[in-house]
Specification:
The chain is α+β, with helices and mostly antiparallel strands. The chain has a single domain, classed as 60s Ribosomal Protein L30, Chain: A. The chain is about 30% helix and about 25% strand. The protein has a four-stranded mixed β-sheet, covered by helices on one side. Strand 2, helix 2 and strand 3 form a beta-alpha-beta unit. Helix 1 packs parallel to helix 2. The longest helix is centred in the N-terminal third of the chain and has 18 residues. The termini are close together. Pfam families: Ribonuc_L-PSP. InterPro entries: RutC-like_sf, YjgF/YER057c/UK114.
């Protein structure tokens, strides 16, 4: 099993956080993909995902990005609205569990 802790939407190439929640979700998923690859598994091995959003009105934008990545995989998923994340500019945080093989 590989666990990727809560990942936010920073663009690590520019060290910036986009304002758009969809862009934040896309960045988080790209970071997760790299972490999984580094651990010797693939995004296709994800069996569980948890999405934390600071505003449930952003859920559709988050689902648009997660659906793009997970539509064929269909991991068990939960979305949770939280009052805030670590920094005020953070709108979404994603964590996943993958099963090797």
């Amino acid at each position: 099993m590989v666990f990727v802790a809560g990942t936010t939407g920073y663009d690590y190439e520019t060290m910036t956080m986009p304002d758009d929640v969809g862009a934040q979700a896309a960045n988080a998923l790209a970071t997760i993909d790299k972490a999984l690859t580094d651990a010797g598994v693939a995004i296709a091995d994800v069996v569980r995902a948890t999405y934390y959003v600071t505003d449930m009105n952003d859920a559709d934008a988050v689902f648009a990005e997660t659906g793009r990545v997970f539509s064929a995989i269909r991991p068990a998923a939960t979305i949770v609205e939280v009052t805030k994340l670590l920094k005020p500019e953070m709108k979404v945080e994603i964590e996943v569990t993958a099963k090797r093989g």
